[in-house]
Design brief:
Structural class: alpha/beta
Strand content: 15-25%
Largest sheet: 7 strands, mixed
CATH topology of the largest domain: Aldehyde Dehydrogenase, Chain A, domain 1
Shape: globular
Family: Belongs to the aldehyde dehydrogenase family.
Distance between the termini: 68 Å
Organism: Streptacidiphilus cavernicola
InterPro entries: Ald_DH/histidinol_DH, Ald_DH_C, Ald_DH_N, Aldehyde_DH_dom
Radius of gyration: 24 Å
Keywords: Oxidoreductase
CATH class of the largest domain: Alpha Beta
Number of strands: 23
Protein name: Aldehyde dehydrogenase family protein
CATH superfamily of the largest domain: Aldehyde Dehydrogenase, Chain A, domain 1
Strand order of the largest sheet: 15-16-17-14-13-19-20
């Protein structure tokens, strides 16, 4: 059984408060032991990042780009080590682990290697300024320059550990910042292993540090540190609120990607096969553990029954089981505690009057010929019909393989339902009339809208409205997110 260490200033060190087990969600067996960082460990990591910042922030863009390219190369060279580790600690299916983890993380390092070379200075047109008591008049010139923020604390989610971290780490480093990462407690081992990748790539010590912990104390220490200039967080809205409050004491910059409750509006003229495939991604893509999932299917009343039947057929055809098997589509959720939470939403919806069409809790599966595996934290792809907008399952983020179907009569009602939650991260519109869909998108209070697709565009600004977050990353917007704007003014 492997025991992992913290990665601080380019070196490995034991956790000051011991270690804790990381459990495979499919087998419930211990994968390895992660270090339990003490307050002193966090302080040491922050100090290392602060010391490295002076040199790294002054390196040329070409040098930063070269380091990021080498990191991508070194990561891909270790694919055979990373994929089984990530699969064991996350419970991801073989398809997700092999295609959506290491290759995507490597591409993010490459994207921001290119990003390091993007212009960081915007010249402003000269402006004639009259003399004032403050200064003499003259033709005044200026530039707006993006400068690194400083030390960035990256606190990441459990669903795609190294991908989520690379999406923060790569643009932060490209802009000349240094990083202290705090991965999710459930699956931090791949993030710790990135330390080996940085050493392989010859990255300067201290630009990337990793501290881990089983509870909230490690992340809280990072947020509280006066030497940390910015916190980039992906996770729940509840935790995001605490980070915003605690970070406010030292006026930290924040970038927060928080919860989502995606609405998929299916208009009467929609191609149902396209809509069902997109909505079904809630079940097929990492067991619904994704903030952008279209978990609310808002279907025009004239197509409602047909959509429910097609979704039920889709859900029942999905193979639930061992994520190591190539034919498995739906694996486990991350922990037993999270499985219980997801099941409580299903039970609660049934108690409120929803109708179970497919799936359900372990209780509903007890007499099913396709029982869930006896070991592992599995939730069957679940379809709930006759859901009303007031139900908890329609308002709160479940983060599991659960789809709630809600009928509507017209566009105005669809918009009202879609906008009725506290969240606004990613919504969808399905219609044969793309101009109509585009017009509806403008009225959705959400940071992202997919029209007839659940596909993402990697260069778009990504983030949420309302309680789904603060700020935007993605593409060149990610470079802006990890920089401060400085105005430099002079007279000719």
């Amino acid at each position: 059984m492997t025991s992992y260490q913290l990665f601080v200033n380019g070196e490995w060190r034991d956790g000051g408060d011991g270690s804790y087990p990381v459990v495979d969600p499919a087998t419930e067996q211990v994968v390895g032991h992660a270090p339990e960082a003490s307050a002193a460990d966090v302080e040491a990591a922050v100090a290392a990042a602060r010391e490295a910042f002076e040199g790294w922030s002054r390196t040329g863009p070409g040098e930063r780009a070269a380091v990021l390219h080498r990191i991508a190369d070194a990561l891909l060279a270790r694919t055979d080590e990373f994929v089984p580790l990530l699969q064991a600690e996350t419970g991801a299916t073989l398809r997700v682990a092999s295609s959506m983890q290491v290759p995507v993380a490597a591409e993010r390092f490459r994207r921001y290697a290119r990003g390091a070379l993007e212009p960081a200075v915007e010249p402003l047109a000269p402006f004639p300024v009259a003399a004032t008591p403050l200064a003499a008049g003259g033709l005044t010139s200026a530039v707006a320059a993006r400068r690194p923020v400083g030390v960035v604390g990256c606190i990441t989610s459990y669903n795609f550990p190294i991908v989520n971290l690379a999406g923060k780490l790569a643009p932060a480093l490209a802009m000349g910042n240094t990083v202290v990462a705090k991965p999710a407690p459930q699956d931090p081992l791949g993030c710790l292993k990135l330390g080996e990748v940085f050493r392989d790539a010859g990255a300067p010590p201290g630009i990337f540090n990793v501290v881990t912990g089983s509870g909230a104390a490690t992340g809280a220490a990072l947020v509280a540190s006066p030497e940390v200039d910015m916190i980039s967080f992906t996770g729940s809205t509840a935790v995001g609120r605490r980070i915003a409050a605690d970070g406010g004491h030292t006026m930290k910059r924040t970038l927060m990607e928080l919860g989502g409750k995606g609405a998929a509006i299916v208009l009467e003229d929609a191609d149902l096969s396209t809509a069902v495939a997109a909505i079904g991604s809630t079940w097929t893509f990492h067991s619904g553990q994704i903030c952008t999932a279209p978990t609310r299917a808002l279907v025009h009343a004239s197509r409602y029954q047909e959509a429910v039947e097609l979704l039920a057929r889709y859900a029942r055809a999905l193979r639930v089981g061992d994520p190591l098997e190539p034919t498995t589509v739906v694996g486990p959720v991350i922990t037993g505690q999270h499985r219980d939470r997801v099941e409580s939403y299903i039970s609660g919806a049934l108690a409120e009057g929803a109708r179970l069409v497919a799936g359900g809790t372990r209780k509903e599966h007890a007499a099913d010929s396709q029982d869930l595996p006896g070991t592992g934290f599995y939730v069957a792809p679940t379809l709930l019909a006759d859901v009303t907008p007031a139900m908890a399952v329609a308002r709160e983020e479940v983060f599991g393989p659960v789809v709630a179907v809600i009928p509507f009569q017209d566009d105005e009602e669809a918009l009202a339902i879609a906008n009725s939650t506290d969240f606004g991260l990613y919504d969808y519109v399905f219609s044969a009339d793309t101009a109509r869909a585009y017009a509806l998108a403008a009225r959705l209070r959400t940071g992202n809208v997919g029209v007839n697709t659940a596909q993402r565009h990697p260069e778009t600004p990504f983030g949420g409205f309302k309680q789904s977050g603060v700020g935007r990353d993605g593409g060149s917007y990610g470079l802006a997110a990890y920089s401060e704007l400085q105005s430099v003014v002079w007279q000719s």
